[in-house]
Amino acid sequence: MASFSPDGSGGAAGADLVSPASPRPEQAPSSGAPEAWEAVLRTARRLTAARHRHEVLRLATTAACEALGYGACAAALRAEDGAFRYEMLAGGTADQERQLRGRLVSAAAFDLLMGASLPIGAVRWVPPESLVRHHPEVEAALLRTGTSAPAGTWRRGSLLVVPLVDEAGGVVGFLSPDDPRSGDLPGSAEALLLGSLAELTEIALETVAARDGARQAVAVAEAQRRQLEDLLTASVAVRGREALDDVLTEIARALTSAGGFRRAAVYLLEEDRETLRVRATVGLDALEDRRLRETPVALAEFAAVMRPDMHVSRSYLFDHRRHDVPSELDEKLSTPEADPDWVDGMWHAQDMLTVPLVDRGGTLLGLISVDEPVSGRLPGLAHIRAVEMFADQCSLAVGEARRYEQAVAEAGTDPLTGLPNRRALLARAAELLADGERRGVPCAVVFLDIDHFKEVNDRWGHAVGDDVLVAVSAAMAARLRAGDLIARYGGEEFVVVLSGTTLEDAIGIVEELRRRVAAVEVPRLAGYRVRISGGVALVRHGEALADAFGRADAALYAAKRAGRDRLRVADAA
């Protein structure tokens, strides 16, 4: 249908599918002759063996030309949006086919043409003088053609449409034969043949779709098997990881390799339950990865690509043909360059599949955003469900990793002050000293002790003593710099590790800590002033952590012996 125009003339405005000077093949059988019926039957047998829809449409359009005596025949199929898109042209040049494929017949234009058409059996004929031919949507769908035979009842600009109708009565496509070599409109016998060819074509399309479905089912089963293997491999890797981010990275890798996507980003909800932050990516360069990790996204913003009408199974498929991403959200996502050769039905750079991460209790943990399917096509339901299986595993892994990290944090945290305890101190201090050694910057270790703390416990009770410990630790932690470490070593003793600090600066920081502690007011100790003593040691090159700690501790006890409420430097004369 898109291969016709009202006046049928050539010229600058269009191109002829068949030139008027084209010879009329003498061997073309009359469309009502037994030879034509036999040719259609041979086409039917070939259609049953067709392997894909393009082969079906090629056989059908070729049969219209060679068996039924038309100079050209176009075929179009209905897309999900209701428009008809051309997929095949027989009898035309490559340039004409390219022009035809660049056009579509909107659902509105198709309805207009059908409403203005006259029936010839199963064939619909739109006369060239029909006013509907001047409707803008109809004109945009048609391509100028010519004739190659003397005109009889066929006139330039005539339009033939043979609908492809499924079992439910819906039109799923059409054949549009043009330029009859007889010069006449089809008679009843020829219309019957065209209708039979259209019915055989639709049956063949259904058969191909069924075969594709069976093949896809086998492929999905095989993919699921591979996915299980990948998940088992990932679970082994996860068991060897402690940090949540490492767990997510391992899961994301398994998701993309088994799920059939080249890019993935895993978002987790922050504690406020309103903010999403990227915690793992696959398929992004380092710059994009860092940008996404540093750019939080409000859950409310993500709702724009998780609308109910985008729902597929438990996920959300954002189709750029139907929706637009708000500019505020688009700036926070990673969108690859669009493929200049993109065609309808293929995955577009602006498309997106979002899979929620939900725990067993139904609580949203985060989202997985996947992009660039390896197949290059929009994912089907089976594919999406396979990805969701991975997401379920992700949710389990996230929950386990969080519980593990919480257990690790609790094991390394002093429950009273919230500071790292002695175990966490030793691990973190070793890292800080090793880092300072690599960078060639000095580090200092400070031991601090609350003076006369036993008297506080004995006089006012341990509950008041706990208040003192909490107030002192908070005052000191508030003064320290990012990268410094403070921990409760035991009882009323604290240890501070100052990274990248000279001895002089370290002394200044400790004196400031002592002044802040002296200013602390404990509600149940009105008028009581807390005092602390300290010992500081500058870590020597290559010195073991235990040795540095020993020198700082010895300096602390020297300060206590000297009368308390003072600071001593290790190894000072």
Automatic annotation (TrEMBL):
Pfam families, sorted: GAF (PF01590), GGDEF (PF00990)
Matches recorded under SUPFAM superfamilies: GAF domain-like, Nucleotide cyclase
Family matches, as InterPro entries: Diguanylate_Cyclase, GAF, GAF-like_dom_sf, GGDEF_dom, Nucleotide_cyclase, Rev_trsase/Diguanyl_cyclase
The organism's place on the tree of life at top rank: Bacteria
Residue numbers spanned by region Disordered: 1-35
Domain GGDEF: 441-572
Protein name: Diguanylate cyclase
Native source organism of the sequence: Acidiferrimicrobium australe
